[in-house]
Structure formats: C-alpha cells, structure tokens
Please model this.
Amino acid sequence: MLHFKMDLRHTDHYGLIKALVEGYHDIVYVKDSFFRYLMVNSAFSKLVLNSESEIIGKKDTDLFPEGVANMFMENDLKTVASKEIIQEFDEVVVINEKTMVFRTKRIPYCDEKGKLAGIVGIMRNVAQERQGGDHNKIETGVGIINHTEAMVQACKELKYEIANTEYLEKILTDNIKKLHGGLMETIRSLANAVEERNPHLAGHQKRVTKLAVAIAIEMYFSEEQIEAVNISGLLHDIGNLNVPYDILSKPYRLSEAEFSIIKHHPEIGHDVLKDIDFPIPVATIVLQHHESMDGSGYPSGISGDKILKEARVLKVADTVEAMVSERPHRPSWSLKKALLEITVNKGIIYDADVVDACFRVFNERGFQLS
Model:
C-alpha cells in the first residue's frame, strides 16, 4: 500500500513545532501512524549520529540495532493500543557501544476524524537526570509538563495538513489495490494449478503461506518482507508443474531417481518466476526454500546468511506443514513431534531464530494450521 512520507518542513506549522522540540534538552521526535519519523530535535540527531534530513521518513529499523528497534516498535504498538493519553516506558538503549537508560513518554495524536495520525515521543536520559540533582529535576519537570501540553496542541494542528493529502492518497491507494488485487488473483490461479496436479497436496501451499506469514510477523519482518513471504509461499511449489504427474501422485515412497527429479522443482520455479517484475525477490526465495543452514540442502547447497531470511522462514513452515499432513506413503505426525524435529536440527538445518519464532506462534499465539 502506498502512503505519503510527510515532511513537516513544508507545513505552515513547522516553525512553531520546531521551536518547541528544540526547546527540550531531552530527545524529542514526531512519528506518523506507520512509525516513520516526521521530525526530530537536535538531541535525537546526536543520539543516532545523523542529521534531521537523513532521519526523516525512516523507521527505527533504519536507525537502531535490531533489539532496540524491536523494543521501540513494541512500545509504539502498546501506546497505540492503550486508551491512556500518555504512556511512559523505561527503555535501555545500546547504540554506538554506549548503554543509556531512557524514561520515554509517548503521546498518540489523531486527525480530525479520530484516526491515529502518529506519536510524539520525549526521551529523558535517566542517568543524566540523577546526576543533575534535585533542583534540575524540579526545574526540568515543570518544563516538560508545559512543553508537553504545547506539543500536544501543536500536533493537533497537523490534522489539517494530513487531511489535505487524504483524498489524493485514497485515489492512489485504490488504484494500487486494484493492481495488487489483479496480481494476487493471478498468483492464486497459479497456486491452484499446482495443487490440481496433485490432489494429495491440496491446500498445502496455502497452509504453508499462513504459517510462514505468522512467523514473519512474529519476527517483526517489514511489510515488504511479509509480502514477499506471502507471495513466495503461495508459489513455492510452482516448479512441480514440470514434474511428471505419475511421480507427483505416486502413492508410496519415491525412489532415489524419482526424488532427484523432484529436487529440481525450486530451480524450475525460479525460471518460471524470474522474468516477472515483482518488487520483491520472489523468484530467489522460491529457489532457496529447500536450502539448509549447514549447506546440506538443495538445489545450490548454499548456507547461512547466503540464504534469504524469507526463504529460511518458508523452509521451516514448509517442513512443519508437510510433517503434520497425511501423505499416501505415511500417516501424519503430531504437531509436538514436528516441532521436536525442527528443534533437534535448530541451527543445523533450520535457522534458530525462525524455529524459536515458530514455537512462539504455536505455543504462545495459539496458531492453528487448519
């Protein structure tokens, strides 16, 4: 989906808002509803060692180490979900080999229709506060209350700037939805064609995709990565269109020669998809979804970081779904046994982080494959 990266420097209220945020000794930022930075003060720029122009439009994942970015995202989501006006968090930030403890206030703000427009954040270095003495605490405490009220009022003014873009954004979004809908319909048709050739695998690609997307979300993948997992999951076995039907439908275990034919399906799928102008690396993910972390997979025998994260997710999801599904030559495994299998080979065949996320999806999120 397309959304505007609004630059507050082009609004009528920029001078007022900038003066307010620069009036803080604390770190201050303004994010939009997709948690992209719209404005920061100089204290924030010093923290990440980037100028404001380099920060605007970026997300936490672009500026901070993964663990810090994930913590910020989680606290942003808690703020949005809460009915409280102000949410306060204690956050430990490790950046540039320096550990800092911040007490962060997050203030959500809405547009004139009541729709979330973004978050204002004020980060205070707790260690510095403690070193400053009681006088500084009281003085800064009064200042932060006054500035916070002014910031909330100023951010309310943003609703007019946001409203001016809504109509055009809706037109663009509707057009993109139509294009995306047509693409997804074609993808689903291709997926159905694969499954029609092998009735024993009916629903396999859809169930794999469902689990893979759940794992990707659990691992805080970006929207683009989740979309890549979704499309690749639906098409990961498209190479089977070129595998003889009598092999696909064989009601008992394949011979070594027959399995060697099956093992070519990732390459065939890649060749089918490589010339389609996807904005995401679908063909490469399909090519790599049977590769293993130790290099024992196929078709290329690559290992570790040479395998795309999306392909590592797809491998785990594909394996678990296959094990818990009945096949002509064997009964289905229990979910417990399937999860034990990927645990035994965690970090060897399967990416360890993906396996851990898969466990959380089933055991903590209550995910169901059916």
User: Anything to note?
Assistant: Residues 1-7, 130-146, 160-165 have pLDDT under 50 and may be disordered. Strands lie at 27-32, 37-40, 87-95, 98-110, 116-125. Residues 8-168 form a domain with the Beta-Lactamase fold (CATH 3.30.450.20).
